[in-house]
Amino acid sequence: MLREKPMPGAWQGIPADRAAHGVIIVLGVPPEIARALEVPGGVSGEQLHLTLVSLGSAHELGEGRLEAVRETLRTFAARTSALRARVTGVGRFSVSQGNDVAYVSVDAPELSALRESLLCDLAQDAGLEAEYRHGFTPHITVAFIAPGQAHPYERVEPLELHFSTLELWTGPRHDVFSLGNSASAAAPCEAAQAAEDSIGAAASIALEAVARDWIGLVATRLHRSPPRERVRIVQEAFDHLHTRVLAAHLAAPARAWAGMTPEATLEARAARLRSVETDLTLIFETAAKQVLRDLPTTEAVLPVEEWQERLRASLTPLFAWASTDEVSFG
């Protein structure tokens, strides 16, 4: 229970423009919990909620998209279990203009995964992206207060609650969807993950097949070519393999970016590409040196089998990188 009910103060409720036109997806606060949390003069009990996603304004979305969101939420709620959580503390958000947000914090271990799955569904089924101006801090806003004004609550005792409804708030309209049972078919994001895992396994098999063919061809060329051509042949061979591996990586799916804005996705892909290119450059430069290291003599003619073994050993870091993506090279 709460430590004590705050006395009436200069608190304010949800700003009128946001209440009239904003579109948000929320978890509804149970009435008995809302009565316990309600602050006199602050956000009214029936308006207390935990925001999952902000979608802008109803005017920007239009009724067609809003209906797509409703259908997405209806399907999502039917396969998602009610969520157990706890109110665990108090906090505030300071904003550059206007009043601060006074809230109580919410702890729910399964909440982040639920939200990520919801974002994925919204992107796939409704073609909508969430706002990514700040991170996700689970909370229930109890009042809007002036900068420097004391929080309505000094502290709260841990308070158990049970979120059982997923709701779409479009201005004054509240569409409520009861959370059902999660023991149904896999969610689209889960299906995407399963597909990505399958593609990842297939990619590993494909890499092994490419390496086998590549090793055979390069080993034969090294065996048949004059010793003075070895450096050029090895360099060209690894450059070619580098290009093939990089192209395969760029073609792979990226579930981690599902739900991001186009700008955020582009930035994430660019950063990932720079990281992958750095890794591959180091891998192949090291591999090329390893193949030609410790030859009996510069003019030695090695059998195909020995060249194959040298090439195969040089690719060990590549396979380790492909499986862990966290390989360190000295």
Task: Present the secondary structure layout.
Layout: H1 16-21, E1 22-28, H2 31-37, E2 49-57, H3 58-78, E3 83-93, E4 100-107, H4 111-125, E5 139-145, E6 159-163, E7 165-170, E8 173-178, H5 188-224, H6 230-251, H7 262-291, H8 304-314, H9 316-324
Antiparallel strand pairs: 1-2, 1-7, 3-4, 3-6, 4-5, 7-8
Structure description:
By secondary structure, the chain is α+β, with helices and mostly antiparallel strands. It has 2 domains: 16-178, Alpha-Beta Complex (Cyclic Phosphodiesterase, Chain: A); 188-324, no CATH class. The chain is built from 9 helices and 8 strands. It has helices spanning 16-21, 31-37, 58-78, 111-125, 188-224, 230-251, 262-291, 304-314, 316-324; strands at 22-28, 49-57, 83-93, 100-107, 139-145, 159-163, 165-170, 173-178. The strands form 2 sheets. It has a 4-stranded antiparallel β-sheet. It has a 4-stranded antiparallel β-sheet with strand order 5-4-3-6, with no helix packed on it. A hairpin with a 6-residue loop joins strand 3 (83-93) and strand 4 (100-107). The longest helix is centred in the middle third of the chain and has 37 residues, at 188-224. The radius of gyration is 29 Å and the shape is elongated. The two termini are 56 Å apart. Residues 253-259 and 325-330 have low confidence and may be disordered. This is 2'-5' RNA ligase. InterPro entries: Cyclic_Pdiesterase.
